[in-house]
């Protein structure tokens, strides 16, 4: 099940994916919307096994030309700052807070929190996106500590570089070196699999996943 602020848009995207993917409207900034989305997911899926926190607003929402013309933090609109933080950080907190009790009741489950390179978190002109992802990473580490003695496993996953998503401005879409979104597929599948049963509080870089997995298997 995938979510988006618009029920219609989420449904349209789900329709482009193989069955039985479903799309539902859920605004991660709004506790009531998150709760309603959780209830619908539980009802339609019969339960929840994995949560992937991947909600995100990028820099283009506060500075459409952030690649070419970085904006100093004091010029960032307050409303834009709050919207990115509420989506990228508060959203992770709200969704996990509603889903975790269901995972605990089942005695098991997985949470994958999508994050970003540390260099991006500190990059010039990247307020508020950088701080939002830094906060989400700290939140993930605390989630993992709080859930360490349970059957719920928490891990971080990042692409390993700038990725060609809707966050990239059109004029930068042909920039060399952009990663395809599919780079995340293999590590996500693995983190949802039986092989990852004991994996907890790891920070996995998708571009380095094969090497990371080989080291883990050898160790």
UniProtKB/TrEMBL annotation:
SUPFAM superfamilies: NAD(P)-binding Rossmann-fold domains. InterPro entries: NAD(P)-bd_dom_sf, SDR_fam. Pfam families: adh_short (PF00106). It comes from the Bacteria. Transmembrane segments: none annotated. Belongs to the short-chain dehydrogenases/reductases (SDR) family. This is SDR family oxidoreductase. It comes from Rugosimonospora acidiphila. The lineage of its organism: Bacteria, Bacillati, Actinomycetota, Actinomycetes, Micromonosporales.
